[in-house]
Amino acid sequence: MSAVVSPAALRRGMMSPKTWEDAVQEVEGLADRLGKPIDPLIRPVVSALRAHGFPTTGSCQGHLSRGHPYPWIEITPPQPTATDPRAAQEEVRRSGILLRAHLTTFLEGFYSTRPASRHSTRLGFHFFPFGLFRLQSVGAEILPYERTEIRRARITEYRAEAASFGQYLRAEL
Fold this sequence. Notes:
alpha+beta, 11% strand, 4-stranded antiparallel beta sheet
């Protein structure tokens, strides 16, 4: 897999890579704001991302009855070191871009090894201000507006796609 950005630039936005076992143990100790553990269906994907050094800060396996009806994992650049507000904003924005570029190399590798998925099922990014982004299926944003039976079918597809990507990431360790 070819590097898109220099290793030094990338390290500024990444956590330290871990072994699979260390990442699993770390993720099992994480909880959300309500003290609930990470959803079991998304946990292996979060573990794989963290093993590769991606700073995950939130996730969900997707739920039909509450929240979003699709799985997602949030990745947040580290706090800036610059004290000037403009420089700090640029530092975080740049870190987010570098993180996405690095994750894109994994997505490209993943999709080069498998038959084409339905476009809406393929994994992509949802962007937030200041470098924060979510890894989620491309069709996730429209899913809440679909009929219930379509949401049921798609959440299963989207979960399977995320799980397959997690397995790919684990194999790349």
